[in-house]
Amino acid sequence: MIPVLDLQGVAFAYPDGHQALHGVDLHVHQGERVALLGPNGAGKTTLVLHLNGILMPGLGTVAVSGLPVTKANLLEIRRRVGIVFQDPDDQLFMGSVREDVAFGPMNLGLRGPELEARVFAALEAVGMAEYADRPPHHLSFGQRRRVAVATVLAMEPEILVLDEPSSNLDPASRRELADIIRSLDVTVLLVTHDLPYALELCPRSVILSDGVVAADGNTAEILGDEALMKSHRLELPFGFVPSSRV
């Protein structure tokens, strides 16, 4: 089976010479929910920006369901890989929720009833259909994050990448978003420092550290490995004991 996400030997250096990735291999299959963990500066954001061609590897290859991530394929790659950034205000810029969610599909040429159906389905999936005509800046932070997810779902991606989805959410919003993520029929890559959230949502975790994959396996086993966690500057909340919950 062809992985929905396939990175082979991906290396990348920024113009200032900083080597952010050192030959990363990562394979994610359809329907998986995988947490990408690691300390600040590990290369997580750099890796994510390779998934839809914002950055291109200096060495190695990236492919989505067999389609290489190249400049020639960017339009289709960016439909297949949807990234929800940490700050929803980076993705919401139209006058209403409906317009924000319609923006991407409209750029693909959708119009009329097909566009309306796509927008409604995406908003329904995140529980925000009743807010379609509200200005995004009138919504709470948690509601804006859900709308940001809807803007990506409206593109019907194969992979949903979530960058720190639980950050700055109150407990109820955090729980609601977790329920939404579990309900989605899409491959998920969850980039987070929130280790309990990773355990709750992702059966598999990958630790990226100093630009290389340091561990890849069962989330509960990885979080329960004290030596591994300490060596990569990862810490569970005080008193939290990991056990398989997904």
From TrEMBL:
The UniProt entry, under InterPro entries, shows: AAA+_ATPase, ABC_transporter-like_ATP-bd, ABC_transporter-like_CS, ABC_transpr_CbiO/EcfA_su, Co_trans_ATP-bd, ECF_ABC_transporter_ATP-bd, P-loop_NTPase
Swiss-Prot/TrEMBL keywords = ATP-binding, Cell membrane, Membrane, Nucleotide-binding, Translocase, Transport
Domain called ABC transporter: residue spans: 5-235
Which Gene Ontology terms cover its molecular function?
Answer: ATP binding; ATP hydrolysis activity; ATPase-coupled transmembrane transporter activity
Recorded GO cellular component terms are: ATP-binding cassette (ABC) transporter complex
- Where does the signal sequence lie? none
- Topology versus the membrane: Peripheral membrane protein
Q: Primary place of residence?
A: membrane
Q: Which GO terms describe its biological process?
A: cobalt ion transport
So what family is this one in? Belongs to the ABC transporter superfamily.
**Protein name, entry field:** ABC transporter ATP-binding protein
Q: Which organism is it from?
A: Nocardioides islandensis
Source organism phylogeny: Bacteria, Bacillati, Actinomycetota, Actinomycetes, Propionibacteriales
